[in-house]
Amino acid sequence: MTRYFFYFVIVAMLIHTVIFVPRVHIDERFRGAILSFAIGPAIAVVLIAAFTATMRKFKGQGVPEIFAASLPKAVYVPILFVMGLGSLSAGAIVWVHCTFVFAKYLNPDMAPSILLILFVTVTCLAAAQSSKAVMYSTEIIFVLSVPLLLVLLLHGVFSKSLNVDSIRAMLDYTWIPPSWNCLSASTNTFAGFLTLSIFNRLFTEDRKIRYVWAIPFIGFALEILSFFIPIGFHGTDGVDDYIYTWVSTMDAISIKYILIERVISIYLLVSLVITFTYTMFVWHIGAQTIGSCFRAFDYRKNTPLTKLIAFGICALAGIATIVLGLRIDEATLFKTISKWMQIGLPIDLLFVACVYVAGKRLLARRAGS
């Protein structure tokens, strides 16, 4: 149970710290970004502790089942619908962002729209599978790709091209109070714990999730690396000249003793695999969450109708993603990502509070009966 939970959390961390968060924090680097690295994990550890402790009391059940047993339908259906849309939109934004990157650096001869259609189609087919299949797929991809990405991050730390003076210069801004923008981005790094809302259905053994205390430290380390490595390579002012900060940083790193000398080639391929993994399980969560609002949806039996509903929800999300990718430009996308993370923090707080209250009500009802 523990290892699967960490797979989801760490993959979500990597997506946020390498794709989303660096751009936000670098834009806010003189306005409290560094202090947010400490405050964000502190907020996250409270949310994680409250959420995991509640879900542990309902083995083999997801949040939809807890809500259905403790709240009126008129209350929990809108909550599930909003959370499902949030999960689907997270995957959509990631794919649109990555399509811009891959079309520019990995395959510039192919139209971005074609790439996006291919990505979305594969993701829809994968996300519509059973929760067990999605979980096992995540484990396989995690074991094969994440260690390689971590090696690339560490190689950047020990690179001779890293300018330590630029990093030291940023330490003068350590104690500036963070803005809401960078605080919400820092906390959003840990949003992977919400995957337990659906995948808790598979955790039927009465075992505690161990080493939860390590999650804030892992997230803190990844945020520090994703923030300071680009600054060390490009300078405190020069780092602002790049649209895709981490892609440009990886393009500046080379490894001499492997078959592919340019790190960016490996980085883009690994990022593609991790992006697929992330969008697969967040779209699966979105489809399962929204699908639970329909009476015909039965995740236990996994009937053809259940699969059709899940696939239909993913297909609608895929169509919306393609439309978004065709109509939005890069500047607008970054603004959208920033706004999305700003509203993500209060929504996560409200959702965890709702799960906690619903869990308390259900336990009190069981004790009374």
UniProtKB/TrEMBL annotation:
<protein>
    <submittedName>
        <fullName>GerAB/ArcD/ProY family transporter</fullName>
    </submittedName>
</protein>
<feature type="transmembrane region" description="Helical">
    <location>
        <begin position="32"/>
        <end position="53"/>
    </location>
</feature>
<feature type="transmembrane region" description="Helical">
    <location>
        <begin position="211"/>
        <end position="233"/>
    </location>
</feature>
<dbReference type="InterPro" id="IPR004761">
    <property type="entry name" value="Spore_GerAB"/>
</dbReference>
<keyword id="KW-1133">Transmembrane helix</keyword>
<dbReference type="Pfam" id="PF03845">
    <property type="entry name" value="Spore_permease"/>
</dbReference>
<feature type="transmembrane region" description="Helical">
    <location>
        <begin position="308"/>
        <end position="328"/>
    </location>
</feature>
<feature type="transmembrane region" description="Helical">
    <location>
        <begin position="74"/>
        <end position="98"/>
    </location>
</feature>
<keyword id="KW-0812">Transmembrane</keyword>
<feature type="transmembrane region" description="Helical">
    <location>
        <begin position="340"/>
        <end position="359"/>
    </location>
</feature>
<feature type="transmembrane region" description="Helical">
    <location>
        <begin position="264"/>
        <end position="287"/>
    </location>
</feature>
<feature type="transmembrane region" description="Helical">
    <location>
        <begin position="178"/>
        <end position="199"/>
    </location>
</feature>
<keyword id="KW-0472">Membrane</keyword>
<feature type="transmembrane region" description="Helical">
    <location>
        <begin position="5"/>
        <end position="26"/>
    </location>
</feature>
<feature type="transmembrane region" description="Helical">
    <location>
        <begin position="110"/>
        <end position="128"/>
    </location>
</feature>
<feature type="transmembrane region" description="Helical">
    <location>
        <begin position="140"/>
        <end position="158"/>
    </location>
</feature>
